[in-house]
Amino acid sequence: MEMSKSSSNNGELEKEVLVRMGSKRGVGSFESLVRLLAMALTLSAAVILGVDKQTKIVSIKILDTLPPINLPATAKWHYLSAFTYFVVVNAIACSYAAVSLVLLLANRGGKSGGGGGLGLVIVVVDLMMVALLFSSNGAAAAIGLVGYEGNSHVQWKKVCDVFGKFCDQGAAALIISLLGAITFLLLVMLAIKRLHCK
Predict the structure, then answer these.
(1) DSSP letters along 85-101, please?
(2) Least confident stretch, 1-5, 19-23, 173-177
(3) How far, in Å, CA of 39 to CA of 33, rounded?
(4) Are 170 and 83 in contact, with CB atoms under 8 Å apart?
(5) pTM, full prediction
């Protein structure tokens, strides 16, 4: 009787160990998928704004008595420092997501999907990526808003009525980057949950 009781306890113990290992593997897989999504989103945002360029013919009137002069004007992302910052930060976040994904997959056998020191470093750098991405999104959104609305106080004219495609592509990149920042924030929240469960 005791032998059957101990074997049933061993069977339950083995099931519990298998369930715990499976849930850790599931969390690691989910984290890997989220990290892959963050990489894809930040890469997309950097590429979309990085190739953003539009040339239009603009009429400039010098004197009221003379006819307007038509000149080509080009809008490029690197003409604005906020957009340059945006592209560089998204490229850094994408590169970091790729490197951290490789490190996590290589260290999968370690403790709780990242091992002690490596896991902590990855969480801290994830948090830095959240801060960088949100700051670059804020800078790009501020410049984009001036492009859409202008600023009458300093006599800045709207440019998005002339360069509509350029502005629309910049807005799309901003939304995708914002989703990337939220994805990195989700990674930080997963790490906090994992630490809380310990």
Answers:
(1) HHHHHHHHHHHHHHHHH
(2) 19-23
(3) 10
(4) yes
(5) 0.78
What phi, psi does 64 have (nearest 5°)? -65, -30
Report the distance separating Cα 195 and Cα 58, nearest Å: 58
Break the chain into its structural domains and give their ranges: 29-197
Which residues lie closer than 8 Å to 89 by C-beta, 6 or more apart? 132, 133, 135, 136
Mean local confidence (pLDDT), 88-95: 98
Question: What is the Cα 70 distance to its own chain's centre?
Answer: 40
Q: What is the mean pLDDT of the chain?
A: 84
For residue 43, the model assigns a pLDDT of 97
Total residues belonging to the chain: 198
**pLDDT in the model for residue 116:** 67
